[in-house]
Amino acid sequence: MVSRVIPVDVFDLVIFGGTGDLARRKILPGLFRRFLAGQMPPDSRIIGAARADLDADAWRDMVREGIDSFGGPELRGHDSLPAFLRQLDYVSVDATVEEGWPKLAALMRPDVVRAFYFSVAPGLFGALAERLHQHAIADQGSRIVVEKPFGRDLDSARALNRTLAEHFREDQIYRIDHYLGKETVQNLMAVRFGNILFEPLWNNHYVDHIQITVAETVGVEGRGGYYDKSGAMRDMVQNHLMQLLCLIAMEPPAQFEAGAVRDEKLKVIRALKPVPAHHIVRGQYDANHEAPSYRDEAGNPRSFTESFIAIRAEIANWRWSGVPFYLRTGKKLRARHSEIAVVFKDLPHSIFEGDERRHRNILSIRLQPNEGIDLTVTIKEPGPGGMRLIDRPLDMTFAKALGEEAAEAPDAYERLIMDVIRGNQTLFMRGDEVEAAWAWTDPIIEGWEKRNDVPKLYDSGSSGPDDALMLLHREGRRWRDIRA
Ligand code: NAD
């Protein structure tokens, strides 16, 4: 099967922070893959803009190295790389000084899509927005892409929204959450809203509970300084996990369109109940004989920052009343494993005599590894000996089910950047959504600060602190295994 690539209009994409880690690891390898897929019109340009005093050739070398190191074996030393690099240019600019900006202004062309990727620290967003206007580099049709973290609490997120709004309309602002660009996450919407099968069951009559897990094996590594001021709640829950929760829990939007989808997500966030302290478990990884502790890695021996969090959340509306949403994320866990599991209720009555095991249908949406969806169903164990029941998944691993087409699917960053060029905001967060998410997380974080809450230690390579297991055990439930 051949994948269908929808061409986009000719564009100029300026990457502020073009020499940075994110640009070299994710954005530029992703753009090269879109180039190879034939999605980058020949007249389009990618312009790196950063503080480093480089010429275009030196930046191209840097991009080549980035693609070789982070683009995977299929991109390394690719024959088409020189052609891609010819579409790249570089301007040295500092967001805080005047120099360089007239040169960037002179590079802008009329009648092409202009997009500006702010891949820099959020403290620079205001200065960049200001200069783009001052030098008439941005026009009415320009789009800006902003990275996380979008604020560190409600007040700072509001301030950031106000700053951007001074220069850009909401329909020009693309707040990126790369989880929304993942193939499986979009498939979650296709499964929910493209099949008649699930919607009648998608409520508190049939769903027992929902689990959302994002487990990483890595620690904080080089990001310790940033992470220690943030923690798992700000770094993962307020954005990625809450976005996943919204897509699972939202009402069907009237159309798959930015305004309609984002309205429904916002309603979910606003319906989240405040979380009592005993419904939250914070953890921090400890040292073992092979690996340092969180505190060692973060360089802060007195740190109380959480590298793990588990939350029992509830949504106060007709559809979900009484259904727990268990969210869990952490570093240095047993495996790299992200999954959303919709666990359906037990049968009201079993007709099979002697079958005392609990059989449950579970719809599992795996984000990584082996992206795919499976539905656990109860079937008869083959062979003689009467009706013995077993649970088996109906497997929809995309790589198996779709073969080449799945392998060619763009990764999250590529897809989202192409959506920016197309002007499609459906998979981006709106300003009011981000603020509502902070309004839910702020009181939780403030509670910890007031109580001087100390995270529970857990072993590297485990499933997190034992208390997190208890969060479900005490309600007769258990977490799904974290496994590779
Ligand atoms: P980085 O420190 O590696 O790079 C920062 C870039 O900003 C460099 O290109 C630098 O030249 C440029 N810069 C710094 N000061 C500047 C100034 N005054 N004017 C113009 N340019 C300036 O950072 P990064 O890891 O690439 O992260 C960039 C943004 O993306 C941050 O907001 C970060 O939170 C976010 N982010 C990064 C990752 C990641 O994996 N690295 C993931 C998610 C979000």
Automatic annotation (TrEMBL):
What Pfam family is a match for this entry? G6PD_N
Annotated Glucose-6-phosphate dehydrogenase C-terminal domain ranges read: 189-480
Glucose-6-phosphate dehydrogenase NAD-binding domain location is 14-187
Q: Molecular function (GO) terms listed? A: glucose-6-phosphate dehydrogenase activity; NADP binding
Q: Which biological processes are named by the entry's GO terms?
A: glucose metabolic process; pentose-phosphate shunt, oxidative branch
Reaction catalysed by this enzyme: D-glucose 6-phosphate + NADP(+) = 6-phospho-D-glucono-1,5-lactone + NADPH + H(+)
Task: Quote the EC number.
Answer: 1.1.1.49
Q: Which family does it belong to?
A: Belongs to the glucose-6-phosphate dehydrogenase family.
Cited function:
Catalyzes the oxidation of glucose 6-phosphate to 6-phosphogluconolactone.
Q: What is this protein called?
A: Glucose-6-phosphate 1-dehydrogenase
Organism per entry = Rubellimicrobium roseum
Question: Taxonomic classification, please?
Answer: Bacteria, Pseudomonadati, Pseudomonadota, Alphaproteobacteria, Rhodobacterales
